[in-house]
Amino acid sequence: ARPPTMSPRRGCCACCWLLLLSLGVQRAPGYPSAAPEQVHLSYPGEPGSMTVTWTTWVPAPSEVQFGLQPSGPLPLRARGSARPFVDGGILRRTLYMHRVTLRGLLPGVQYVYRCGSAQGWSRRFRFRALKNGVHWSPRLAVFGDLGADNPKAFPRLRRDTQQGLFDAVLHVGDFAYNMDQDNARVGDRFMRLIEPVAASLPYMTCPGNHEERYNFSNYKARFSMPGDNEGLWYSWDLGPAHIISFSTEVYFFLHYGRHLVQRQFRWLESDLQKANRNRAARPWIITMGHRPMYCSNADLDDCRWHESKVRKGLHGRLYGLEDLFYRYGVDLQIWAHEHSYERLWPIYNYQVFNGSLKFPYTNPRGPVHIITGSAVSPGTGLSPGPWSALRVKEYGYTRLHILNGTHVHIQQVSDDQDGKIVDDVWVVRPLVGRRMYH
Ligand SMILES: *[C@@H]1O[C@H](CO)[C@@H](O)[C@H](O)[C@H]1NC(C)=O
Ligand SMILES: *[C@@H]1O[C@H](CO)[C@@H](O)[C@H](O)[C@H]1NC(C)=O
Ligand SMILES: *[C@@H]1O[C@H](CO)[C@@H](O)[C@H](O)[C@H]1NC(C)=O
């Protein structure tokens, strides 16, 4: 965005501006503005904190004003910083990405905030600080593959969010289709679209294949995930669960650096070791990555191959994740990429490891996989493998309720069927003996 050019007719332009302003239009498209937009939250992983991220079109200070009262003054202040992000498109558009972390928040308490500076403030948003400790029951909205166009399941998600159904969102890769498109304007449009949800709930992400352009730069610049890996891989604790987010894309876009496969793998292993030392307190280990190891969809994706790179690694033997996750007793693996919902029986190496025939998910003897990429148009299916428990080819999203250390509830909401629950299962694992499968 460039400054408005001076023209002989600027007197008239000024009139137009006054008129527009008096009509409540704050900004014409393309006019550089310090007014915050694309406001969203993320959890930086430290109890009692929340990060607010937003965009402006000119440099401006980064401040958040917040408080407990829905109206009236906002007595608390936090400051952060802004960094220019230059998109890789031909226009080299510059976005100023602001980040402010709020600290010392009271667990479970609702806050009101606005962000910006004297040069322009956002409207007020509300969020609830995450609770601390392990003895509470987080509720998550989970999905991948959500576009800026035709976001069918989104209005429902928005309503459900406003009704207070969730504590956080997991967006399992693929944003906007694509954030870099049209000189990153599609990314802007997408971030504005999700604002009603993402400015009220920590919106936690992992990269998908559609974020690949310019070395995932739109993904890295727009989101603010915990850790120091630009959101490519990180983990965080939420109630009785340890949640690991990682990039399946390091296995496919090797020209950005083969070393990333190894670096991430080593990080995953050490993170799993740490999580297992803490397993008695936080029994659930949940992973999220974009491309699944198994799927029943009719395409030529990685999951259609017996030697899936995500599952078996590069060349079918280097840094495969199925063995790693099995070895450390990971409970639940969440994927997307395939445009449908699919639940697998507990599985390892193409073999089903039901807890029992009657209760397959009670004391399962292998990890449970869920693929939830149906926020975008549903795909077509092949005949499902013997490890596939259910497929749903409807728009929707997944609800994950981590009730306590032993019980997790998974539900699939169909948007096509007006919010009907089309899948409903409990995964039950004992408190002890979770560090590995036998
Ligand atoms: C791509 O990004 C990663 C991490 O953000 C970095 O380590 C790598 O060197 C980058 N690759 C290229 C080719 O710029
Ligand atoms: C796993 O459990 C389901 C549900 O009872 C059953 O249909 C399936 O055949 C079982 N698979 C194996 C290998 O036991
Ligand atoms: C978790 O909740 C279930 C269902 O209410 C209950 O049966 C189970 O004992 C609880 N587990 C723990 C560790 O409290």
From TrEMBL:
Domain Purple acid phosphatase C-terminal as annotated: residue spans: 366-423
EC number(s) recorded for this UniProt protein: 3.1.3.2
Keyword Lipid metabolism on entry: no
GO molecular function terms attached to this record: acid phosphatase activity; metal ion binding
CDD domains named in the record: MPP_PAPs
Keyword field contains Ion transport: no
Keyword vocabulary terms for this entry: Glycoprotein, Hydrolase, Signal
Residue ranges of every copy of the Purple acid phosphatase N-terminal domain listed in the record: 36-128
Origin: domain of life: Eukaryota
Catalytic function, reaction form: a phosphate monoester + H2O = an alcohol + phosphate
Domain Calcineurin-like phosphoesterase: 139-341
Signal peptide start-end: 1-30
Similarity comment text for this entry: Belongs to the metallophosphoesterase superfamily. Purple acid phosphatase family.
PANTHER family the UniProt entry points to: ACID PHOSPHATASE TYPE 7 (PTHR45867:SF3), PURPLE ACID PHOSPHATASE (PTHR45867)
Protein name (database record): Purple acid phosphatase
